[in-house]
Amino acid sequence: MHDRQLLEMPESLRSPDYFEELSELPQIIYTQEHWEDVPTSTPFPFDAVQKTVFKNFPRAKWDSQKDWYNSSPAYMLALAIHEGYDSIGLYGIDVRDDSEFSYESPCLEYLIGYACGKGIEIVIPEGPTHLNKFRGEGIKLGTMLPTYVNRYGYVFG
After folding, report:
1. pLDDT digits over 93-131, tens only?
2. Domain span at residue 69?
3. Which of 40, 78, 109, 149 has the highest CB neighbour count under 10 A?
4. Does residue 144 belong to any structural domain of this protein?
């Protein structure tokens, strides 16, 4: 879903035959717009997904950007929700706090919550992942930085 010009820059670290390899794939490849040299490239249905998945997105009331994508998995998840899947599996996605991908977590968690609220089963495999991980460290409370083990805050009973 990256802009074509960005993908063509040497800094993107794509192989020299990247677009040739894409052109040989038989399945749909969602892009921002159709690329003549990649026959199966298909424009992502931004308007249709916005009208279903982001229909009641809070920012849509006051901002010109009425959707929210911070990663390729977010585009895929939003499209799967839009297309009406009953179960969606999320495999190989890690949004570690200490990586450049940490900014992807809030968008994915929003979409996961939205899907769950619609009754869609979300499958996240067991094992080490930071996707939907409780983050109990670094939450400032006054001048303290307490470590919460199970949830934010304490429950007294």
Report:
1. 877 666 666 778 888 889 999 999 999 999 988 876 767
2. 46-131
3. 78
4. no
Q: Which amino acid is at 15?
A: S
Query: Which candidate, 59, 22, 20, places its Cα nearest to that of 41?
Result: 22
How far is 131 from 94, CA to CA, in rounded Å? 6
Q: For residues 79 and 36, state if they share a domain.
A: no
Question: Does one domain contain both 32 and 52?
Answer: no
DSSP for the chain, written as a single string: ---HHHHHSGGG---TTHHHHHHT--S-EEESS--TTSTTEEE--HHHHHHHTTTT-GGGGT-S------SHHHHHHHHHHHTT-SEEE--S----TTSGGGGGHHHHHHHHHHHHHTT-EEE--SSS--TT----SS--BTTB-PPPSSSSS----
CA distances from 36 to 21, 26, 32, 44 (A): 14, 15, 13, 15
Query: Which residues neighbour 59 within 8 Å (Cβ) at sequence distance 6 or greater?
Result: 65, 66, 68
